[in-house]
Amino acid sequence: MSTPDGTRAARNRDAGRRAGGWRVVVLKGGRSLERQVSLKSAARVEDALERLGHEVVAIDVGADLVGMLSDAQPDVAFVALHGRDGEDGTVQELLEVMGIPYTGSGVSACIRAADKVLAKHAMRDRGLPTPDFYAFNETAFKELGAAQALPAIEQRLQFPIVVKPARQGSALGIKFARTPDDVPAALVAAFSYDRKVLLERHVTGRELAVSIIEQDGRAGSLPIVEAVPVQEDFYDFEARYEIGRTRFECPAALAGEAAARAGELALEVYRLLGCSGFARVDMMLEEASGELYVLEANPIPGLTETSLLPQAAEAAGIGFDELIDRILAAAHER
Question: How many folded domains does the chain comprise?
Fold first, then answer.
């Protein structure tokens, strides 16, 4: 934004904020399989922005997005999209082309975080703990005979293993393979969501979520949320979003040293991937060893009533409206 037009636009945004509010477009919905989660997140965001005194223009993202953004002439875009197009850098790239500031991480961070395989390779290269894994695309199975390598992979990872699509969020498409006989069906399910799949060692233990939020350009971790499935042993999409299927404990009942390490590890991952504004890092605390293992980073975590970031913020004394205000302010500062 070093051009005269960009400078003028920045001054106009500052003046708008001083006058009481900005014109904010909330990008939501889209064509992702996480569309319904996005719509729920966006509805809460829109209400909060209006309470904060901003002018809200809601856009259900589709083929007419560029035209709608041009018509809206927003001061800033609040990205409430999840999954395809929203978290993978696609809409972020478009917003940058149009010179519109936006919430959350930039293009490159979204690309890295949205692809679990890229993120895990980056973590492993940096020496950060993540469960052992192997990843294959459809070509490897259809044309290179990767299926014949499955026995060796299964032996190295040991059962049970987790099979998941590389680029889906909200636990979509994740399957738990307890035996070799479970693997083919799990692969079919994962490939129905993405052309690349991840086979990962299952870590038995406690599932933790560490949310990160920035204020005045500094990132800090929020109280840790532990997800405890009710009468189930695996945290899938339904368990995550249907009220009553999962119990959430925040702050998680962790020893001080473990909690501090989880917060530090989440910040290391956040910085490694280049995230900004806010994010959530999911990890496991292994029961047998007491070690932490990072599963993934989410550059645009959900903001629904059952989402983990708002729960963590609430535990830190940050109400939902203040959380949204901080996210918006971070976008402006960047």
Answer: 3
